[in-house]
């Protein structure tokens, strides 16, 4: 739509002009991320279990054409009292197109969560300067049973039950 501008000259004559004023925003960043969990304290099997502490390492890539000016990451507990967040905010800073940065969050799984099946964590990555963000809800299974890990030396496992729960860890 054209914009109308009124100009008052030195001779006190007013002129109205209609002009088209093109406005183009800055190129925007678009964020993609991946994460992995590192068991900090616990039994060392890499599975999320009551009483253990984990670092969640998040790698963020700017896939957009614009630079992120002040990228910040936050995690929040979407469940109940089963999760205690020790470090829930990471400042990644500026992020140019196609650039990666990695930051780490820290959380503890409370000991009294034996009835919970999973942790629900909200991960949000946002640039507060450009008001651009991405968020996701992460669903991390909690291993509550006393299941002894198996040392599998073969590439194949024969499953004889109709439903079998398979767990993997960083052992």
Could you explain the architecture of this structure?
The protein is mostly beta strands and 171 residues long. The chain is 0% helix and 50% strand. The protein has strands spanning 3-8, 14-19, 31-41, 53-62, 68-77, 83-87, 89-95, 100-109, 118-127, 132-141. A four-stranded antiparallel β-sheet has the order 3-4-8-6, with no helix packed on it. It has a four-stranded antiparallel β-sheet with strand order 7-5-9-10, with no helix packed on it. A hairpin with a 4-residue loop joins strand 9 and strand 10.
What is this structure, in a nutshell?
The chain has strands at residues 3-8, 14-19, 31-41, 53-62, 68-77, 83-87, 89-95, 100-109, 118-127, 132-141. The termini are far apart.
SSE succession: EEEEEEEEEE
The structural class is mainly beta
Unreliable spans are: none
Number of strands: 10
* Mean of pLDDT: 85
Tell me what portion of residues adopts beta-strand conformation.
over 45%
Largest sheet: 4 strands, antiparallel
Report how far apart the termini are: 63 Å
Can you tell me the overall shape?
A: elongated
Radius of gyration: 26 Å
């Amino acid at each position: 739509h054209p914009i109308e501008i009124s100009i008052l000259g030195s001779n006190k004559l007013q002129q109205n002009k209609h002009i088209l004023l093109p406005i183009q925003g800055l190129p925007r960043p678009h964020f993609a991320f991946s994460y992995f969990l590192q068991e900090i304290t616990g039994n060392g099997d890499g599975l999320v279990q009551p009483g253990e502490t984990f670092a969640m390492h998040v790698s963020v890539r700017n896939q957009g054409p614009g630079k992120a000016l002040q990228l910040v990451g936050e995690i929040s507990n979407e469940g109940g009292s089963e999760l205690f967040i020790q470090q829930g905010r990471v400042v990644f800073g500026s992020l140019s197109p196609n650039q990666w940065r990695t930051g780490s969050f820290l959380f503890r799984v409370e000991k009294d969560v034996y009835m919970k099946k999973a942790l629900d964590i909200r991960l949000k990555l946002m640039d507060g300067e450009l008001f651009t963000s991405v968020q996701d809800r992460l669903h991390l299974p909690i291993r509550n049973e006393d299941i002894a890990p198996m040392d599998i030396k073969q590439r194949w496992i024969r499953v004889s039950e109709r439903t079998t729960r398979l767990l993997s860890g960083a052992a």
